Amino acid sequence: MAKFVIAGRADCPYYAKAELLADYLQKNLPDFRIHKITQHPEVWEEWLKDVCESNKWSHKNSPIIWRELLDRGGKGLLLGGYNEFLEHAQLYYGVTSSMTTELMMVIAQENLRAHIEKEQEKEALKDLINPLQVWITSASAPACYNLIPILTSGEVFGMHTEISITLFDNKRAEERLEALVIETRELASPVLRRVSICTKVEEAFRQAHVVIVLDDSTDQEVHSLEECLRSRVPLCRLYGYLLEKNAHDSVRVIVGGKTFVNLKTVLLMRYAPSIAHNIIAVALGVEGEAKALLARKLKTTPAYIKDVIIWGNISGNNYVDLRKTRVYRYESAIWGPVQYSRPVLNLIFDSDWIKRESVAILRNLTATGKQFGGILAAHSISTTLKYWYHGSPPGEIVSLGVLSEGQFGIPEGIVFSMPVKFESGTWVVLTDLKDVEISEKIMTRMTSDLIQEKLVALGDVINFQPYKSGNLLDAEHPKQWATNGLE
């Protein structure tokens, strides 16, 4: 039996002519078989070079045709291009080709379209075969326990996207992780393909599509704020190296936790520069806590409150902006359809509560660590991921920690929480919002501390010098809401 391999550039007219001749021979000769290979024009030359080098052939054009020596084994016998194949067909089988140039060009374009469609189908099937690889760092943290049921519910990535979860932590946490694996499997989630443990640092983030960074648990004792800031650098440097080395090229990294969230995010960007555009910090925890506090004051449901903007340091000095905040379905003398809303600041007449009491409540929550409990942290991370993959609600403002490029007068090079919207698998900073200017005093306070954190952590400054000022409520905008250290 004679088996010939015909390979060519998908849009090559001579490949089309050789293919037609080969089809005719296979149809009319009982012992003649062909195998066809097409390559996209952009990769053809590299593919041809690899084939020729591996077989020690010399051939430079499309198509390339060889005979496989099925009866004797071996690498195959190079025949050549279209002309050599035509001569072979005439000599051994008395067959020739009479395809016109115009028909050759038409078939070549059809071949290219068919090749592209075939490759797209392969990619779609690959997505079905290979699950989304989700890695969770510091997986022994309480937030992970609350996060897993949400990730495996299908609400985050979609019911048609299977996921594989890897729990990454140190060796000391292995027993706890094993118990978590058993519980996760018992969920019998239809979207969970696999759950596993990783305690070997060198294997971290292999082929990861999503990496969720939680607060790291450490036994290292620190005696000062400066030591605490510098202690974040080694782990972020390690994670950055592993992300660059092991993760998927399009990996998405989401940083959560209750300590130095902005700092950890900017350090990861520094040590994983090729994916810096895909590293973000979760700010929805602060946003959710503010909504809940407002809802208690207004005696409504937190979900009915929209467009709270969190500016600045997510786990430090931030600024809760209510100028765009609206409440829906609010029971009052004025009533409207479901889409009707009213500005929150028009409904809270107690200015002393906004300026002092609410600030004290939120500051106390931050100081005690209650603000970022496991449930809230898990919900904030999963909601941000859901928006990242499927888009945020149309017209709604979302707060997110991203690298500043100078928007709103924020210094470049620091991670800063600001208003965004998610769409088409990414986010867009809402720089077109009107009346969201922040007073210079408040902006200086927030940016100064973030810049100081970064400089101290990297060793460029020895001592942290917090910004000192008097009352940080902007006299021009008395109804703006400050919290977490802003007085």
UniProtKB/TrEMBL annotation:
One Pfam family of this chain: Ldh_1_C
Xref: InterPro entries: Lactate/malate_DH_C (IPR022383), Lactate_DH/Glyco_Ohase_4_C (IPR015955), Malate_DH_type2 (IPR010945), NAD(P)-bd_dom_sf (IPR036291)
Residue stretches spanning the membrane: none
NAD listed as a keyword: yes
Alphabetical keyword list: NAD, Oxidoreductase, Tricarboxylic acid cycle
CDD domains, alphabetized: MDH_like
Domain of life per record: Eukaryota
Segments forming domain Lactate/malate dehydrogenase C-terminal: 290-450
GO BP terms: malate metabolic process; tricarboxylic acid cycle
UniProt family annotation: Belongs to the LDH/MDH superfamily. MDH type 2 family.
The protein's name in its UniProt record: Putative malate dehydrogenase 1B
Organism annotation: Propithecus coquereli (Coquerel's sifaka)
UniProt lineage: Eukaryota, Metazoa, Chordata, Craniata, Vertebrata
Gene: MDH1B
